[in-house]
Prior knowledge:
7% helix, 6-stranded mixed β-sheet, 3 helices, single chain, Elongation Factor Tu (Ef-tu), domain 3
Amino acid sequence: MLVVVGRIGRPHGVKGAATIEVRTDEPDKRFAVGARLLTDSGLDLTVASATWHSGRLLATFKGYDDRTAVEQLRNALVSVDRPADERPEDPEEFYDSDLEGCEVVIDGGDSDGGVIGVVREVSHLPGQDLLVVATPDEREVLIPFVSAFVPQIDVSAKRIVITPPEGLLEPGDDD
């Protein structure tokens, strides 16, 4: 499964380093020396080095040894081929692709309260992440992805149990 992990930015220095706009929670793993990345234009890159400099990831790639060469990669999205069964090390973390397609139900104590819909995507905002849920009546509901509202996630069963605050699931004026 191809997963976007970053975007190559401007060159840094004259020896082929490029800034990386990181789009993964695991940059040290995804940009490790020897890691293979695929660009959106189909180029296969191998990470030669990666280091953090002033809060920004700098990477070099085999075969791109100077500023001019790495300039050709500017703005390319880079992806990794992640095995579908791979999971983050922390049990409290999830890959977006594992949550997409999960059925969302309201916690009903001993039984499920009711089906809300299916996770269409995970939206990463500066304040917090949101589950974007498509409902059977073709609405879109945004669920704050915090443990107070999302206490149970069973990725293998593709099921998420929520305890929404009052009013969260009510249709808004613009619906």
